[in-house]
Design brief:
The complex is a heterodimer. In chain A, 73% of the residues lie in helices and 0% in strands. By secondary structure, chain A is mainly alpha-helical. Classes of the chains: A mainly alpha, B mainly alpha.
Chain lengths: 178, 356
């Protein structure tokens, strides 16, 4: 690639890609649990950055609020209550190491093979205009073809059931203590 | 009303057409300019707020507040800033160095990112996201991570307890803060901040939206105030029980980051409340009073914005210095048994009222 023809978004993409790659390797390799969680945080943040770069702001914001604001905070909380500063995970054995190495190498080779031989007919047609929020909202809550009211409602009911279940468990425990 | 996009377009035009720079360099220069402007605003707002807090706190406690350095003590905060910059950062034995040094950056980045989407005036907005409200709610959740990491990596009981309290508090109060903002979204019919401000051009939501908007505004102020970890919700850093909570072990500028982030978060909460309910930079327009509206338009839009923010901030300081600290169970009870049900009912009611 010619250095002079490089665009600003390409530079940003390369930075984000480097963060994702380094972060994912460090997440797996790190033997301190909370460090791994922080590397995972960087991976998730950089992924959100790629969504921003593609002008899909809604997905980026959802990525940040769900994965970082929700899941990662839960993860950190649970690591928090179970481990201490300076604690390290045990070094995995040689068999475990080789098996994981082989599997991940196989995965990497497979991905490369798909990338090199696969056809990506829509790659040139990506429209980099911002996707209108109204369009997203209507396709989530519409009943026509390519609209998703039923899955949306099913997931809402599932989440509601989870919340009520959580409250039930919480109240049940306090009664026992009395 | 003066449109500030005239100035930004002039700079863009100067770089692209007059100097004939390629896209890459134009964008690079503009990114740096916007970044420098936002960071300067960030630091200046924190300085002004620290001075205001000290003076107002002094007023509530029948003291004068800072009055020696400079006229009315105006240079006191500048002196304090220089002092904190020169202080040593003390490394803590048996702490987790990597996380310990990284935690303050999460806290400060979480609040700087919100600055990108705030409309400070007509045309004074770095990025006008289609989903502005969701973006602001999303990036403000980054601060929680910083607080949790700080508490854990300090390897100190007080920090740990402070961070757990703070985490529980932030995660629960985020809900009613977000849901009460949705009332303004329902009233405006959009999540784009510039359009929300435009929708208030005939009258601000706090007046136009009736009881719903008022309830949502009050709940947002309470929940937002709780999210800034300030009294009466400051039990995460309760000095009488936990020394200084999650930032006990920090010194020098790493402590300064927490301090600055606390004050700018105060400003951000006020700015969001202003944008969503008090009309943002929109001057006070009353339908039917055309002469009055025209006079109001002569006041520059940033003055409107910062004036309304100052009002909200004063309310927050007033509450802070008037009420005693809550206990953790009272704090969570307030959120889950009082604020959340009211917000949900309010949101349902406003949705029904708007569709009717």
């Amino acid at each position: 690639m010619d250095i002079a023809s490089i665009t600003a978004s390409q530079v940003i993409f390369f930075i984000l890609a480097a963060v994702i790659l380094a972060g994912s390797v460090m997440t797996v390799v790190s033997r301190k649990l909370l460090h791994a969680a922080v590397y995972l945080l960087f991976v998730l943040l950089a992924t959100a950055g790629i969504y921003f770069l593609l002008n899909y702001h809604f997905l980026a914001a959802v990525q940040i609020s769900v994965y970082i604001g929700g899941i990662l905070v839960l993860l950190v909380f649970s690591i928090y209550l179970t481990s201490q500063v300076g604690e390290k995970m045990d070094e995995p054995g040689i068999v475990k190491k080789t098996v994981t190495m082989l599997i991940s190498m196989g995965g990497a080779v497979f991905c490369f093979w798909v990338l090199c031989t696969g056809q990506f007919p829509y790659a040139d047609q990506i429209h980099l205009n911002e996707i209108d929020m109204h369009a997203i909202g209507q396709s989530l809550l519409g009943t026509e073809r390519y609209q998703y009211l039923l899955p949306f409602e099913a997931i809402s009911v599932l989440l509601l059931a989870c919340i009520i279940g959580g409250i039930l468990i919480a109240t049940g425990n306090t009664k026992k203590e009395d | 009303m003066f449109d500030f996009s005239v100035i930004t377009c002039w700079i863009d035009n100067l770089l692209r057409v007059e100097w004939g720079l390629p896209d890459f360099w134009t964008l690079a220069i503009e990114f740096v300019l916007v970044g420098v402007a936002l960071l300067t605003a960030y630091a200046l707002i924190a300085l002004v707020l620290i001075y205001a807090e000290r003076k107002i706190c002094g007023f509530f406690q029948c003291r004068i507040g800072p009055n020696r350095v400079g006229k009315w003590g105006l240079l006191q905060v500048v002196a304090d800033m220089i002092k904190i910059l020169t202080k040593e950062i003390i490394p803590i034995k048996r702490s987790d160095k990597f996380l310990f040094l990284m935690a303050p950056f999460f806290v400060i980045i979480g609040s700087i990112l919100t600055f990108a989407a705030l409309p400070f005036g007509l045309g004074l907005q770095a990025i006008d996201f289609n989903i502005g409200v969701v973006y602001i709610l999303a990036v403000s959740s980054l601060g929680v991570i910083g607080i949790l990491l700080a508490g854990w990596s300090s390897n100190n009981k007080y920090s740990l307890i402070g961070a757990i309290r703070s985490g529980a508090q932030l995660v629960s109060y985020e809900l009613s803060a977000g849901l009460s903002l949705m009332v303004a979204v329902v009233l405006a019919g959009t999540m784009q901040l510039s359009e929300i401000v435009e929708a208030q051009s005939d009258l601000w939501f706090i007046f136009k939206g009736g009881i719903f908007a008022f309830v949502a505004f009050v709940i947002y102020l309470i929940a937002g105030h709780a999210e800034t970890n300030r009294g009466p919700f400051d039990l995460a850093e309760a000095e009488s029980e936990l020394t200084a909570g999650y930032h006990t072990e920090y010194s020098g500028i790493t402590f300064g980051f927490y301090y600055v982030a606390e004050y700018t978060n105060l400003f951000i909460v006020a700015a969001i409340a202003t944008t969503m309910f008090l009309g943002g930079w929109m001057p006070l327009h009353i339908p039917g009073f055309d002469a009055f509206n025209a006079v109001m338009d002569y006041i520059p839009t940033p003055i409107w914005f910062f004036g309304k923010c100052a009002f909200c901030i004063f309310m927050a300081l007033w509450v802070r210095w008037s009420y005693p600290r809550l206990r953790i169970d009272q704090l969570l009870k307030l959120e889950w048994k009082v604020l959340m049900p009211i917000t949900l009912v309010n949101l349902a009611a406003v949705a029904v009222a708007v569709t009717m």
